Each structure stands twice: as C-alpha cells, then as structure tokens.
Amino acid sequence: MFSAATPRASNDQPVPRHVAIVMDGNGRWAKRRFMPRGMGHKAGVDSLVKVVQAAADRGIGYLTVFAFSSENWKRPEEEVSGLMSLLIVALSKHLTKLESDGVQIRVVGDLTTVSSKVRQALLDACEATAHNDRLVLTVAFNYGGRWDMVQACQRIVADGVPADQVTEATVSRYMAMNYAPDPDLFIRTGGEVRLSNFLLWQSAYAELVFTDCLWPDFDGAELDKALAAYWQRERRFGDVGQDEPPEAGLAVNTSGN
Asked: Is residue 182 among the annotated active site residues?
C-alpha cells in the first residue's frame, strides 16, 4: 500500500513508518478539573482526532492506538458503558472527516465479546474507509498482547502448520496486525512507564517514549517532542550498522482479517 521508501521530515530526519500510542491519563485529566471521568474520555477523543491529522501531516503511514484493553472490563460498569457509547458517538461525529482526509480505519482485538451495536459501528467504519491510503489508523479495541499471541498460536495449530516450520515470520503472519510494519516508535502518555500488554510481539524493537503529558493534552507539538526523542536514538536492531527495521511485520495476511 505504501512506498517502501522511508518518509523524511522537514529536518531531513527519517519519519517512523509506524507509531503506536497508549493513550493514558483521561481520568486524571478530568479529576484535576473536578469533572467526571467521562469528560476526560470525551476530551481524549478530540485529542486523538488532532493527533491523527498531525501524524498524517508528518508522513507517518501507520498509527495504532490502544482504545480499550482486555483488562478495561474491570473498570466500573458505568465507565465501561460510557466508553462504549462514546465510541459510537465519536465514530458518527468524526468518520466523514477522517474518510475525506484519507484515513483508513482498521480494528484489532476480540470483537466477539462486545455488543453487536459497538461491533457493527467499528466494522462500518472500516468498510467506509477501506479505500484510503494516506494513513492507516488501527484501533486496538478489547485487545491484549497476550491474547494476540494466543490467537496466533491457535490459528497456526488449526491450519496444521508443522511445529518445525513455525518461525518468527510464521507467527508474524498470524498476528492481528500482520498488515502493518512493526512499530518504530511506541509512545505512552500519562506518566506511567510500562507496556500494559500492548503490541508485545510487535514492539520488540520499538523505541519507547514515555511522557508525563496526559492524553487530552497531547497534540501535534507533543508528537513532535516524541519524534525528537526518536531521532536521538541509534537504531541498530542488535547489529552495529543496520539502520532499517526488520521486515517481519510486513507479512502477507493469510487469515482473512
């Protein structure tokens, strides 16, 4: 879909092909303003729309965001219900603009356990934007990195792949995001310093950037700060001279996802 050439920023630095973000801090942002947590999530949606545009403007080809983890079901029922409703409203509000801006929406995660209304809203958004190729926005919804590894192993076994033919490339082909290169840059907002079960397989060689900025305050300027940190890293992937990431993440989709 995208050119193999690595995009360059205006400062002639290589732009990461794939940026993954854990959008953390919505609740604390609201609490500091004496607002209900739901208001923080609404502000977080507005921030996401801005960051999607900023990423596209900077030539980033893939943006993956952690919208709802498989662990988020443990939150209070009222908050979970609010998040589900907010997703539907946000898609209704922003889908037309995202579609016209050339954004392709994809979803990864276990959708079998979400309501049919939420599942249909996500699938409709994917279908409506499938023809776009400016930026692929992947929404990780009811997703967990360990779930992803387990489902990949289950499908490898189901397809009858002999054990001695299972390689890293084989596993990559069966991962939920087998259509995308592995993340070059992994950002977590909100001050926490952990991966929280997000893209565990895919982020093996990602550059990690953690920021105290709460997600609703994250914007194009904050993205540029993360890119500046990324450009300071020397990416060798275990070698002394290699400066391009492995291609394992660019596997062919054999699962029909």
From this structure: no
